[in-house]
Amino acid sequence: MNSATPTKLTLVLENYIVQSAKEYARAQGTSISKLVENYFYALTKKRGAQKSSIREITPFVAKLKAGITLPADFDYREDIAEYLEEKYK
Hints:
By secondary structure, the protein is mostly helical. It has helices at 15-28, 32-44, 59-63, 76-87. The mean pLDDT is 80.
């Protein structure tokens, strides 16, 4: 399915990453949404396809990759619930 209709996406990120991304986006004259869209596009474009008009992935965006492996049974919803429960005690 190929749709040009924008779709809302919720991401859970560390606050310092969001703040750094906002500063970077502002300095580049773009939005975080556009940065994420371009990054996902670059990750998923087919090999051998013509060069796109997006920029190469910058070192900053490359650093956003966590490089961690989570257990197969990891439930992020449970993790968030525990965090919020502790936060609002």
